Amino acid sequence: MELAILNTSGKETGRKVNLNDSIFGIKPNDHAIYLDTKQYLANQRQGTHSSKDRGEIAGSTRKIKRQKGTGGARAGSIKNPLFHGGGRVFGPKPRFYGFKLNKKVKELARKSALSYKASTNNIIVLEDFSFDAPKTKEMIKMENNLNITNKKSVFVFPEQNNNIYLSSRNVQGVDVVIVSELNTYKIMKASTLILVESAVDVLQATFEN
User: CATH 3.40.1370.10: which residues of the chain?
Assistant: First the structure.
């Protein structure tokens, strides 16, 4: 699959890049995408929620009424979960929500996500660029030139570029990542995937290895 390389003005440079069909042209596996996305979202959960059961509530353990003869249910202490202020039954406790996922499944999921974007023509290859200093206006101008304003877009770079990251930080819907940070969730969530020219080789080499 060939794509024209655009410049920051949104014009074709006359050069093209070849996208490997084994990465950008496979038959997508929806279940692999689901599993990888589920794992990513599960790993974002802190799992620090906690509630107190009757053994952790501060209060007296005195038996509040006699066992029989009151006409009501028996009650051991004021910390009974049935009473206001009592402990919670089967409440949440700190836990880890993540789970193991095989590397081959994760790789298949990312290839499937990339293939989806390629099949719907939602991948743009942009020539390498950089900013001398953080300039949000330049990033917004580039968005307008590429016709991706008000759309969720992900810019993929081969390595960290601090000026570009800072320039995009206050632009709504724009996410800047490096190849190693690109995951299935971000690919599928983005309306447009913008690959910097030098990132294409790095991305394809990552999957080939």
Answer: 2-46+101-208
CA–CA gap between residue 108 and residue 13 (Å, rounded): 32
CA distances in angstroms from 13 to 7, 59, 182, 183, listed in the order given: 6, 75, 26, 29
**Fold topology of 2-46+101-208:** Ribosomal Protein L4; Chain: A; (3.40.1370)
130 within 8 A of 163, measured Cβ to Cβ:
yes
- Does the structure show a pLDDT above 90 at 149? no
Beta partners for residue 176, in sequence order:
155
**Residue that the structure tokens 């290895």 belong to:** 209
Cα angle 164-170-176, degrees, rounded to a multiple of 5 = 40
DSSP state of 93: -
- For every residue of 140-159, DSSP letters joined together read HHHHHHHT-TTS-EEEEESS
Phi, psi of 196 (to 5 degrees): -70, 140
DSSP conformation letters of 32-57: HHHHHHHHHHHHH---------TTTS
Rounded Cα–Cα distance for residues 66 and 49 (Å): 36
**At CA 142, angle to CA 115 and CA 183, rounded to 5?**
30
What 3-state class would DSSP assign to 98? coil
Q: Report pLDDT digits (tens) over 106-134.
A: 999 999 999 999 999 999 999 998 888 99
- CB 10 within 8 Å of CB 60: no
**Whole-model pTM?**
0.84
